[in-house]
């Protein structure tokens, strides 16, 4: 997609902006938005939440994630319709948006309103979406993590931005709403496809470990209501019958960076990810810590998380290759020691299947279900279908093959989302910094049918006719 450049430019005097259209103003942020710092002495009861990627929404629509609604709303900030709300700690990861509601929000949020006659709310949002501006604003924040450094109105109010005339703000807002809407629709389509692939992945595992690979094999009632029929030559046993022991790990104090090859480290919970062992998700042990070699991880080990959120507790993986680093598992992880009549790969897939997940989640306990736990006894009491070992190997190999194909498609979808997100950012940047002239744009023109560029360039990314962007 290409658009003409403006006929004349000037030096903005601002490094991140570069040259801007000659007739645009270069103003501090406070000239086009101002802070609304009104406390809730009116008794407004509609509490608003802010979620990255979704913007401002009523608390009831947020779901059971993130911060909870405070009991006392009197200290909350008032939000009016069309106000721009920014999470002061998560601005850099997309936690901001225009409010379609009147209500109140967390007192740590920044609430901004467009200066009447100076800026349109929609255009103000687009300026705050510009990634270079975000990085600049975030650089003034205070905090340990750069992407979560808290910023305040005093940090951003004097930053300078390019401000076009009112009529151009309207056209730019219309243009960006239309074009980003198309990109957002493509991103959502890819996300739906990825969700369908996740469902297919789960179905492949669950069907194979409970019904086998031969559709014509005689079946029998398993005697377990939720398991249904299984192949007639299979058994159904408790895990205690196929385990020779369960090891629990250890969580010593560790460094904030991963172990290198040959160094000792302890894995994070995220190292166990739906059947995959992610070796890099570990923390190096300090040199003065004596490692416990008895819980060192080796190829063939079957690891299960014993504590996590209810959705993730009991996640399992088999370590397929010997780790390069010398890793131990933490006290939030079990290592299942299996007997000769079950393979680690097959048992892992059973635990990941619908029947395995249902049992582990049903047995999970905890004072706070944000961190549910499963015990040795819960694991040993799980019932599993048990085919002959040779058939277990065949089933596991077939699952490996089908999951590899699903993983390839999923990776392609994720790559498409990444490219589309870059395109979206590049388009916004080009528009709000004046690198493209869309005054002649209108929906239904041939321009909107042009193919988007494959990769967004840093800071601009969308070219203008007559020169590189």
Automatic annotation (TrEMBL):
GO terms for biological process: DNA restriction-modification system. Transmembrane segments: none annotated. It comes from the Bacteria. The keyword Metal-binding does not apply. One of its GO terms (molecular function) is DNA binding. Keywords: DNA-binding, Restriction system. The keyword DNA-binding applies. PANTHER family: TYPE I RESTRICTION ENZYME ECOKI SPECIFICITY SUBUNIT, TYPE-1 RESTRICTION ENZYME ECOKI SPECIFICITY PROTEIN. This is Restriction endonuclease subunit S. It comes from Thioalkalivibrio versutus. The lineage of its organism: Bacteria, Pseudomonadati, Pseudomonadota, Gammaproteobacteria, Chromatiales.
């Amino acid at each position: 997609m290409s658009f003409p450049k403006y006929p004349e430019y000037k030096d903005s005097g601002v490094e991140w902006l570069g040259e801007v259209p000659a007739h645009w103003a270069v103003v501090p942020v406070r000239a086009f938005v101002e802070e609304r710092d009104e406390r809730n002495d009116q008794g407004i009861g509609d509490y608003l939440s802010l979620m990255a990627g979704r913007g401002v929404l009523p608390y009831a629509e947020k779901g059971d994630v993130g911060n909870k609604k405070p009991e006392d709303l009197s200290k909350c900030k008032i939000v009016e319709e069309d106000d721009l709300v920014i999470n002061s700690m998560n601005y850099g990861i997309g936690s901001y948006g225009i409010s379609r509601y009147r209500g109140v929000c967390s007192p740590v949020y920044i609430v901004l309103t467009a200066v009447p006659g100076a800026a349109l709310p929609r255009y103000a949002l687009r300026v705050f979406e510009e990634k270079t501006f975000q990085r600049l604003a975030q650089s003034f924040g205070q905090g340990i993590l750069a992407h979560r450094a808290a910023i305040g109105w005093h940090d951003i109010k004097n930053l300078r931005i390019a401000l076009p005339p009112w009529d151009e703000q309207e056209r730019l807002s219309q243009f960006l709403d239309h074009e980003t809407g198309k990109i957002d629709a493509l991103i959502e389509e890819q996300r739906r496809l990825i969700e369908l692939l996740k469902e297919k992945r789960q179905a492949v595992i669950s069907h194979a470990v409970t019904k086998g690979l031969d559709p014509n094999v005689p079946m029998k009632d398993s005697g377990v209501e939720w398991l249904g029929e299984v192949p007639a030559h299979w058994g159904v046993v408790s895990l205690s019958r196929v385990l020779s022991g369960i090891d629990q790990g250890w969580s010593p104090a560790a460094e904030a960076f991963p172990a290198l090859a040959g160094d000792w480290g302890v894995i994070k919970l995220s190292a166990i990810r739906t059947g995959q062992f992610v070796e890099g998700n570990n923390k190096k042990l300090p040199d003065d810590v004596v490692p416990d070699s008895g819980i060192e991880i080796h190829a063939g080990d079957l690891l299960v998380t014993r504590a996590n959120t209810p959705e993730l507790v009991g996640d399992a993986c088999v370590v397929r290759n010997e780790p390069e680093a010398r890793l131990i598992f933490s006290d939030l992880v079990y290592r299942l020691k299996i007997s000769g009549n079950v393979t680690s790969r097959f048992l892992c897939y059973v635990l990941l299947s619908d029947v395995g997940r249902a049992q582990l989640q049903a047995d999970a306990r905890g004072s706070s279900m944000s961190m549910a736990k499963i015990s040795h006894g819960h694991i040993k009491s799980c019932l599993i279908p048990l085919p002959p070992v040779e058939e277990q190997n065949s089933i596991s190999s077939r699952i490996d093959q089908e999951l590899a194909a699903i993983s390839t498609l999923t990776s392609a979808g994720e790559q498409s989302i990444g490219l589309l997100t870059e395109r979206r950012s590049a388009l916004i940047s080009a528009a709000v910094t004046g690198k493209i002239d869309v005054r002649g744009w209108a929906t239904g023109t041939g321009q909107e049918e042009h193919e988007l560029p494959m990769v967004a360039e840093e800071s601009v990314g969308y070219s203008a006719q007559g020169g590189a962007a």
